[in-house]
Give the backbone structure.
Amino acid sequence: MDNGLKRVAICFLLWIGCSSVVYTKHRPRRELSIVHEWSQIEFDYRSEVERQANIDGGYFRVGTIAPEDCDVYYSGNTSTVFITTPRIHSGTPVTLGTVTDRTRNGNPIVAPYPSWSWHNNSNECPVNGISSAFRIMIDECERLWVIDIGPLNDVLTCPSRLLVFDLRTNHLLLRYEFPNSVLLSNSFLASLVVDVVDQANSCRNTFVYIGDTRGFQIIVYDLAQNRSWSVSDRTMYPYPNYGIYNIAGQQFYVMDGIVGMSLTPNKPGEPRRLFYHAMSSPTENWVYTSYLRNETIFRNNPFAAPQIFHTYRNTRSTQSAAEAIDRDGIMYYGLLGDIKIACFNTQGIYQNKNSTAIIADNPVTLQFPDGVKISTNSRGRQELWILTSRAQYVASGTMFDVNETNFRIMAADVDQLVSGTSCRRLQPRGLTNNPDLYLP
C-alpha cells in the first residue's frame, strides 16, 4: 500500500495526563446478537457474468472492501438494514446498500441503494449519483441522511454533499453541496447527527450537525434555510498522546478529530445537548444545540464562543469512535483499545462508577465499532445496533484474511443490556451545570 493510499484508508476507516477510569462490570442478560457477518463484502450483481466482468475490469476488488456505518429502518413488520462501503480506493462498485437475505459463500449480499444507476460513473460526479457514502442516519421522519464525502484515492473527485432520501418512496428529497465557505482544504466529513426540532411542516425545522475530522470543526446545516455554517473550538482537536492505537495486536498512528457525535432526547422543557469527541482523544464534550443553531454567533468567527463548550474532567483510558444516545439519555460507545462497549447515563458524571458501565466485552466480535445506532423497532422497543469493521487492519496496512469473519452487524434490546447497571439507575438532578465536573 503506497503512502498516499494508506493516508486515505486510515482516515476513511476511522470512520472513525488522564484521570483513572472506573467502570462497573455487568454481564448483560442478553449479549449483542450477530445479525449479519462477512469475511468479505459481496454485492447484488444481476448475473455471474456481470460480476466476473467487474472483477476482471478492476471495478470490484474482492476482499478489499470494508464497511463503515449502518442503520436500520422499520416499516410495519419489516426491517431494512443499510450499510455504507466508502470508496477508499478503486474497485468498490457500491458505496451505499441494503443487506439482503441472500448470501454468497456465507456472506450476505448487499444490494445497491437506491439502484445500480446511482453507483455508476462515480468519477464523473453525476447529479443522481453517490461518490462515496461515509456516514448515514435515519430520522424520525423516515428520511435517510447520507454524507457523501467525495474524495477517491486522496483526490477530491466530487464535492462533499449531503443527500436525503424518503424511505417511503426511495426518492431523493435533497442534494446539498457544502460551499467552500464552510470547508477547509483538508476537510473530511466523518460523522453526522440529525436534530428534528419539530415534525410540523413536513419536518422542515431540522438541523444537521456534521463532524469534520480533519478540519476540527462542526458544520451546522439548516434544512429550512438550506444553508450551513462552521463552528470551531479547541475541544474538537485530537490529543497527541492518543494518536497511537493498539487494537488486537495491530498498531497504527492517526490524529483524527470529531468522529463520535450524539444527541440527548428531544423532550419539552429540556434543552437538547450535542455530545461529541475527537477519536484520537480521551475526553467527552457537549454543547447546547440552541447555540449551534444560532448562526449569528459564528458568522464572523467560527471560534467566537469558547464559553459554550464543556469538557468532562474524567477521561477514558483509550480512544473511542462512534456513539449514540437512547430516549432515556443513556449513551453507548466503543472503547477501541479495550475492545468493549460501555454505557453512560448523561445525567451523571462521565467515567464514574455510579453512571458508567461495561455492557459488552468480546475481544473477537467487538474489534473497532465504527457504526453505533439506536433504533426503535415495530413494537416500540429500543435496540442498540453496532457495526464492527476490524478497521485496524487497513489502518496498519495489513490485508484482511478472507478466511476469517472480518465484519459484523450486531444488535440487542437496550433495556436488557443496561438493566441492573449504573447507567440505568436514577441520577441526582443538577449535575449538568456543576462546574466542578468540567475542565476550565
In short: The chain has a mean pLDDT of 90. The CA atoms of residues 143 and 166 lie 5 Å apart.
